């Protein structure tokens, strides 16, 4: 059934068609692309990952039923291709996040904003890794040092002011596109804002669009 938006509503009609054609696999692909291109860890997509996991399980059961019923091999292979794509996106999304967690775990733990972006398993992973590393270092190194050095060494390792803790480089240029009809960005050292129409692609500093990624802007 066609939907009548009335005259002068082309933009609204385009948004409606985009929404109706959007699937969780497409949303997962966007989340994966944003996570892959962003220098810092982004907000974990709880509901999307949950739905994607359920859909993958259903697709696996469907492919298995098709194979057992003797369905046309070409049809089965097409379903298998969709399944493989969904599995790749989900696994790669989680793997990229895990790599960021491992690299920036000390920085993430002392940053409330970043820590709140983690899933519960990721938070548990960060705490366990740091605790294990500190215990291992204490048992193998600090305990061997003279008493007058141990407290100073331990304090420098876990200090929030430690310059050796890796931090995400937000002064990084990224390619991005507007996911909405219009976005205005205030650039650094520029009086004129950068105005982006829907799907326009620009190359800007990540810190300029940091708060808009996944909302008004997607990385490419």
From TrEMBL:
Keyword vocabulary terms for this entry: DNA replication, Nucleus
InterPro entries tied to this protein = GINS_A, GINS_bundle-like_dom_sf, GINS_Sld5, Sld5_GINS_A
Gene3D superfamilies reported in the protein's UniProt record? 1.20.58.1030
Q: Which domain of life is it from?
A: Eukaryota
Subcellular location per the Swiss-Prot or TrEMBL entry:
Nucleus
Q: Which CDD domains match?
A: GINS_A_Sld5
Domain named GINS subunit is located at: 74-138
Q: What is its main location?
A: nucleus
**Name of the protein:** GINS subunit domain-containing protein
Show the taxonomic lineage.
Eukaryota, Viridiplantae, Streptophyta, Embryophyta, Tracheophyta
Please give the organism: Xanthoceras sorbifolium
